[in-house]
Amino acid sequence: MKTRHKRLAMVAAGLCALGIAAALVLSAFQKNLVFFFTPSQVAANEAPQGRSFRIGGLVAPGSVQRQPDGVTVNFVVTDTVQNIPVAYRGVLPDLFREGKGVVAQGNLGADGRFTASEVLAKHDENYMPPEAAEALAKAHAGKPPGAATVVVPAATTEKR
Amino acid sequence: MNQPILLAGGVNVFKYAAPQTFYPLAGKLMPWFFWTAALLCAAGLYIGFFVAPTDHQQGEAYRIIFIHVPAAWMSMFIYVVMAFWAGVGLIFNTRLSHMMVSALAPTGAMFTFVALWTGALWGKPTWGTWWVWDARLTSELILLFLYFGFMALQAGIDDTRRADRAGAILALVGVVNIPIIYFSVKWWNTLHQGASVSLTSAPTMAATMLSGMLLMALAAWMYSIATALHRVRSIILEREQGAEWLKHLPEATK
Q1: Which domain holds residue A24?
Q2: What's the predicted TM-score (pTM) here?
Q3: Are residues A55 and A115 in the same domain?
Q4: Do A129 and B65 touch (CB under 8 A)?
Q5: Mind listing the pLDDT tens digit for each residue in B71-87?
Q6: Would residue A64 count as lying in a domain?
Q7: What is the ipTM score, two decimals?
Q8: What are the CA-CA distances from residue A36 to residues A47, A113, B214, B219 (Å)?
Q9: Cα–Cα distance for residue pair A54/A49, rounded to 1 Å
Q10: Are residues A71 and A25 in the same domain?
Q11: Taking the mean position of all CA atoms in its chain, how far away is CA A151?
Q12: Are A92 and A116 in a shared domain?
């Protein structure tokens, strides 16, 4: 075995060991690496209890209600299986829209209502001109209900 | 190198592993890469800002993608190339490989910074925040610190050979972060959206948007090669001071 073969083996072995170590560490911290919990995870009690955390999902279409005081907004976060009603006082991001992705940080009350202190919009990775989006929406409108919502949430639901 | 590797044309690759042969070659290639970078960048920016349509959701704000994504790709790719040359340098003990690693680091750090910075500028109008500690953003920030760490470590050790070795090991160790950055949006849920362009599925972008982004990505490649060649020439001059071949350079004899 030549010296450089030995060094090649050492570098390769080192990288393998490092890769395995990193994989083990990451899988050990799997739970702490998620940015938000889905309503289904919250329903299954997987979300942290008694402290602030983030929920993520889609703003349920038709659920956004602006309260008369002008700063409070109520809406429902859904992953199409479970729903969580959210109350938030403050300014919403521009991309906050019904049917689109949202991440809210706050506390879950005993009554199952989530009081958010921060609301962020989560957009998907689809970029297209408005005309193309309209054409897509039209094409989907011809299909049975339920199929129409699949395009946008796909990105959020597959990643959970 | 007792068994020289020969390319198709019978060119000995290891001939160019010697600083004195690589120095003039790099000097000849450099302007070509700079000019290609400039042309591609101009074309990419033109398509990005004047030809590509407005996005259906984000309006004009999405246009930062033409800088953000190429910079982010480049920040990861340069690190992989650095790790590759670091490995070659450690295994074959070639001086030029280590010089290449040092030459790439500042460009990589620059692209990482640009990716983070444009990301913040993009995040504010769309997500509603400059920064969040999600897996994608955090791992990219770690990449910036890896670049800084590499440069500091290299500069902090006086003995060049030891500095090269230490830097190479850091570059190789840090490469584990690259798949973490890339797959973070798949492995965990993050605020950052998934990839629009990947090897495994069709891009989820309109064609003109995609072409502008790819032109900018190519420009970033050319720019990186050009700056790396430029910097490696300076490093060669610095490290080979007093070497006989330097006295015979056309620049020196003028």
Answers
A1: 3-32
A2: 0.86
A3: yes
A4: no
A5: 999 999 999 999 999 99
A6: yes
A7: 0.78
A8: 9, 16, 32, 36
A9: 12
A10: no
A11: 15
A12: yes
